[in-house]
Amino acid sequence: MLTMEDSKTSLTGFVACVGLVCVDIVNTCSKFPSEDSDQRSLSLYWQRGGNAANTCTVLSILGSKTKFIGSAPTMNSDDLPWGLDASRFALQGLEKYGVDISDVHHWDCVDFPTSSVIVNKQNGSRTIMHFRGDLPELNVEAFQNLDLGDHAWFHFEGRPNIDVIISAMNMIVDYNESRSETEKISMSVELEKPHVTNLFSIAKLADLVFVSTDYAKFLGYTTAIECVEGIKNMVSNGTEIVCTWGSSGAAFGINTVGDVSTMVPAIPPDRVVDTIGAGDSFIAGVIHARSQGHPLDKSVQFGCRVAEKKISNCGFDHMKGFKPPI
To answer: Using an 8 Å Cβ cutoff, are 139 and 127 in contact?
Structure first.
């Protein structure tokens, strides 16, 4: 399990994020369009997206040594122009931010995941329609070929390949059994999408569990504090739980005797411009601080500051050089 010392530790291994990389096609509109209407966009642009890919990007910006592990089409076929062009654009976008992509798993397929996003300029909200296509999820072989000794932290995005994620996490558990505390790999998971069945099964193997507002409500909770308190009894002893609650902030707690869950309020910027990737940025901030040895409370506060910086402008370029104190 993660240690709770305040002192920073020096990580030599990768912080690896496992999950989705995609392309976001973003339309910014003066207001959200009505159904069956004709409205002009204020701007249109592509950007690299996907929960795990966004988290990798922000981790790298914050100074972590970062790796992305996910699926992409093969790059040696000439008859898949859209899939190849989109994949190349997304992976080059990760490399631009210094993210290692050497363990991306390539498949012979014709599609690349693409999200059509509408950003409402009035309030910064984002509405997403996601096309998955025929790109397979990662399989167990993608993890069997990894040198776990090169990694310090794995963050798993909860996706439909739950059995594969559990197998990968068990490989890490087995690896940790013969390692000292300083050599063990930490694991975090993101529980976000209610439509993914058996999603909670991966939480029992994690050191740190992130729960989205949507998933908390799916479980029947009405506040972030209530969610953290409820989940404490459903995970292993010592597991840390963080639940985000939009503009209200995030709650955190630890499954230990006497722990009291706490809410960290969000401090939104003067103007909310773009909330795409805000949750991914929050997770990156928490992992970055936590992996450096900071306690959970300071790590969650740091994650909130990182998310606040993200929503103050479009994309992630404006976050370069952003190093708030922890």
So the answer is: no
